[in-house]
Design goal:
Mean pLDDT: 94
Helix content: 25-40%
Oligomer: single chain
Structural class: alpha+beta
Number of strands: 4
CATH class: Alpha Beta
CATH topology: Alpha-Beta Plaits
Low-confidence stretches: none
Largest sheet: 4 strands, antiparallel
Radius of gyration: 13 Å
Order of helices and strands: EHEEHHE
Length: 98
């Protein structure tokens, strides 16, 4: 069942974030993910999000999403995003009513 990595944040360090993007892109492709959305100006209709930037990646399964996130390649660059942004990320299944 498909799973989605969803991150929403505000970028506080544009240069650091560009370094993250350059390193993260190849890891996403290598793990067979699909970039579903990349929006730097998402519109909030409920609640108070950390920022307007939203990224949604689609993986074949939760296991595939976790394998990408925990991979050596991604772990080598994710710190750049964490240092350059403030927000959150989740992995969510396409349909999980249990």
């Amino acid at each position: 069942m498909a799973a989605y990595f969803i991150a929403q944040y505000v970028v506080n360090d544009a240069d650091g974030y560009r370094e993250y993007q350059a390193g993260a892109g190849p890891t996403i492709q290598a793990h067979g993910a699909e970039l579903v959305a990349f929006d730097v100006g998402a519109q909030t209709i409920e609640g108070t999000p950390p920022g307007p930037q939203t990224v949604i990646l689609k993986f074949g399964s939760v296991e595939a999403a976790k394998a990408w996130y925990n991979s050596e390649e991604y772990q080598a660059v994710v710190g750049k995003r964490l240092a350059a942004t403030e927000g959150f990320a989740v992995i969510s299944q396409a349909m999980n009513a249990g």
